[in-house]
Design a protein that fits this description.
By secondary structure, the protein is mainly alpha-helical. The chain is built from nine helices and three strands.
């Protein structure tokens, strides 16, 4: 039986220790310093903050760290920025491609611009609170009268295909939770018809509804929603009769 190869100097090492929840592993390696010396570092967690629960996981983590040291890409925890930590966290995730794309976009657009250059050791609750306040201010600016109804946090257009798929998934989930009789299977475009029908049934002038829908003429609106008009005609007749003092 071949004996496992002993690690050479500078290759680091892996050891196990016991906790109340089971065996955990830590790694040890040497990091070159600016003055030419080396400093021994011990790590009990992965770079994204998880405890190392298997020797294989610890070995993989140590191998990546040593590769970073060899290539000059390793950053000591004291000097690591929030942006660098976020990159390591993203690279260590195992999620669906669409989820990863969403995470990376949020990190790129919202977290890195505000916190990316801050050293991780200096990240405080006050800085995070300031980011939340700034985000809240942005949300308020986005509810201006001239803002898009279906816009993202930057005021840009949402991708229509992705938004439609998300809407459909929400309807399917709601039907599974509340029952198929409680919620009809509708498309996002059907909300436009609901909007117009509710306004017309409430007595909103047809011209106003037509303008909100962007119809070229009122005739288009009348032809599309004529099924709502009979009841409105009866209401109009009753109102007229009341105004002139007669009876409908």
């Amino acid at each position: 039986m071949t004996k496992p190869r002993r690690r050479q100097a500078g290759e680091g090492g892996i050891s196990e220790y016991r906790t109340k929840v089971g065996i955990r592993y830590w790694s040890k390696f040497k990091v070159p310093q600016e003055d030419g010396t080396t400093r021994e570092v011990m790590r009990r967690k992965t770079r994204d903050g998880r405890p190392m629960t298997t020797r294989k996981e610890a070995a993989e983590e140590l191998r990546e760290i040593l590769a970073g040291i060899s290539g000059g890409a390793y950053v000591t925890p004291q000097k690591m920025t929030v942006g660098q930590w976020l990159d390591q966290w993203l690279n260590g995730l195992q999620v669906a491609a669409s989820t990863m794309a969403s995470y990376r976009k949020n990190v790129r657009l919202h977290l890195k611009p505000a916190l990316g250059e801050i050293q991780l050791a200096r990240l405080t609750g006050a800085r995070i609170s300031a980011l939340c306040v700034a985000q809240a201010s942005l949300d308020l600016r986005l509810v201006r009268d001239d803002s898009l109804i279906f816009g993202d946090l930057n005021g840009s257009y949402l991708n229509p295909d992705r938004f439609s798929r998300r809407f459909t998934r929400s309807i399917v989930l709601a039907r599974s939770e509340l029952g198929t009789d409680a919620i009809p299977m509708i498309r996002i475009h059907d909300l436009r018809h609901t909007h117009a029908s509710v306004l017309l049934a409430a007595g909103t002038p047809v011209k106003v509804v037509s303008e909100r829908l962007g119809h070229a003429t009122v005739t288009i609106t009348l032809e599309t929603y004529q099924h709502i008009m009979p009841g409105m005609q009866a209401e109009a007749a009753s109102m007229f009769a009341a105004l002139v003092g007669g009876e409908a």
